[in-house]
Amino acid sequence: MSDNENRQTDGSFGHVLRTSPMDFWRLWYVGMLVSTVRWLETVAMGIVVYQQTGSALVVAMVTMLRLVPMGLFGAFLGAFAERFDRRLTLVGVVGLMAVTSALLAVVAWTGTLEVWHFAVASFINGCGWATDNPLRRVMMGEVMGRDRMATAMALDVGAGNASRMVGPAVGGLLLAGVGIEGAFVLSVLMYASAVAAILLVRSRIPSAPGSGAVLARTWEGVAIVFTDRRLGAIMAVTVIYNVFAWPFTSMIPVIGRDRLLLGPEGVGLLTSVDGVGAFTGALVLALWLSQGWHARVYVGGVAAYLVGLICFALAPTPLLAGAALLVTGFSGAAFSTLQATLVYLAAPVDMRSRILGVLSVCIGTGPIGFLWLGWLADLLGAPEATAITGVMGLLALAATWPLWRRI
After folding, report:
1. Inter-axis angle of helices 22-53 and 264-288, to 10 degrees?
2. Highest mean pLDDT among 73-77, 301-305, 371-375
3. Closest listed residue to residue 188, CA positions, set 21, 55, 359, 33
4. Phi, psi (degrees; rounded to nearest 5) at 75
5. Which domain holds residue 140?
6. Distance in angstroms (rounded) separating the CA atoms of residues 219 and 224
7. Is 221 a residue whose pLDDT tops 80?
8. Could you tell me if residue 9 is inside a domain?
9. Separation of alpha carbons 308 and 326, rounded Å
10. Residue 98's pLDDT is what?
């Protein structure tokens, strides 16, 4: 065994895990690339769909389809991931997303791209996103160890949020200068680089023992969440964030164009401001966050995010809108860092993939918020609908205080 490898014993399985410290950075790189593509395509698709349909509801629904697989398959994928080589499974998932973007590039080049193509691609790529917690993040946790999990997640969230600075801006610039086919070609190249990085991962994490059926193992994970008060509270806050907070991102292209009178480049740059705040927040957390503050930062991040999105919706100028997005970015980083960390630390060691799969289901409640926000935006206007939804989120957070104070 080379000097840069180490052997860890996982008390839950009684197995020795072969890990390499560099593997964390390889997995971190994969997450950054995939997240960059997600944001690049989300902004580019949102602009094109709104140009074609003029409907904020359709824009929200196309964006929403990236979350639907989490709600449908998240818990199942968590149990499924335990049964196979996580590295090779991750290669297959990223490869599938690359093929999807390649097909979209070809269709866009022929000039026959339609809204339903975006919808299908969003759903397929959403299936890949649903595997991130039970696959890549579990691998990162096992490589880094329990004591360094919060730092690992802060760095991972920082990478994801750096992609929120780069992805939207690049998507807007490519859309304006080359066309949407250029955005999809870049996506394919980035996915290919991610696959290469995964193939270089040297750590070997054994599959979970036992031959129980996947559905039975899935239910075991769900049952633990219902019986463990801390896990249940974490999931409740996650649902509030994904129903009332996160969906506002689908309205950024709409508000940017209609209220702030920005073009594709301006919308892309405005969206990237959220990433600037998130990247900064992740760095601050990686450097100074202590375990005693985990719960406060987690819940406080959701509250600050909701206030920030209300301010964004009501902002009369691009400058003030950008300032509000800095707030949502910073607070969103706090939430995202602690979300997976708290679940990973609270879950039984031998069931981490399954519990993180349940977390994906809670994240998958986002489509409810996207549908609601899109419908309300068509009825009242995007700024008004976004502000109302943010207020509802604050009320929901206040109403569930007896639950989340247990965290």
Report:
1. 150
2. 301-305
3. 33
4. -65, -40
5. 17-404
6. 9
7. no
8. no
9. 8
10. 94
8 domain residue, yes or no: no
Task: For residue 15, give the DSSP letter.
Answer: E
Report the number of distinct structural domains present in the chain.
1
- Cross-strand partners of 16: 9
Which pLDDT tens digit goes with each residue over 183-200? 889 999 999 999 999 999
The amino acid present at 232, given as its one-letter code, is G
Distance between CA atoms of 104 and 48, rounded to whole angstroms?
Answer: 13
**Regarding predicted confidence, which is higher, 82 or 312?**
312
The helix (H) or strand (E) run that includes residue 6 is strand 6-10
Structure tokens given for 71: 């709600």
Half-sphere exposure of 326 (CA within 13 A, CB side): 8
The residue to which tokens 């929120």 are assigned: 164
Q: Does 10 map to a domain?
A: no
Give the pLDDT of residue 346.
Answer: 79
DSSP output for 72-119 = HHHHHHHHHHTTS-HHHHHHHHHHHHHHHHHHHHHHHHTT---HHHHH
Number of Cβ within 10 Å of residue 114's Cβ equals 10
- The string of pLDDT tens digits covering residues 43-79 is 788 888 888 888 877 887 787 788 788 777 766 776 6
pLDDT at 388 over 80: yes
Say if 3 falls within a structural domain.
no
Residue 4 has what pLDDT? 43
Write out the H or E segment, with its range, that includes residue 150: helix 149-177
pTM, two decimals, is: 0.70
Pairing of strands 15-19, 6-10: antiparallel
Q: Going by C-beta distance under 8 Å and a sequence separation of 6 or more, which residues neighbour residue 107? A: 113, 117
In CATH, what number is assigned to the domain containing residue 333?
Answer: 1.20.1250.20
The C-alpha atoms of residue 198 and residue 271 are separated, in whole angstroms, by 29
Query: What rounded mean pLDDT belongs to the chain?
Result: 81
